[in-house]
Amino acid sequence: MARPHEKPIPSKVAFNQHPLHPMTVHFPIAFLGFVPLADLAFWWLGDAFWALVAFWMIVVGFAMGVVASVLGTLDFMLVRAVRQHVAGWSHFIAAIMTLSLAGTNLMLRLDDPVGSALPWGLFTSVATLVVLGFAGWLGGTLTFRHGIGTYVHEAEDDDADEDDKPEDPVRE
Known about the structure:
The protein is an all-alpha fold.
């Protein structure tokens, strides 16, 4: 099993040490992640409301995905350690694929959001969800396993020098 990161690698695109890419990816994940559910609700209920909900979730998810991808690309280019991991390249490619699928889904539904929801809109939204899940998992790997976008507070830095393990609770 791979060892967790030993040294934090801060983001270059951050506000007050808080990396902007991980702060913005939640929006496309949430919006694009629920599109298949809205599509299934439309298929099951036949109510055009759900096809329109799916369309607008794609619009917002795609727009926020563009914002997140610009911030992620900047970190990818500016933080050399990201490019040194296979997970960094894989995350980059999977995120581009996700955005491409979301854009395809948007273009598919642009002229007729209700009429084009089934079957290809549903198929594309499910494919987007699968690739989105993979991209998110890889992004988590970059943060939690490799320490990308993390930092240490000064108080934590002093504790790291002592190399102490947490104490076990006292058993009586």
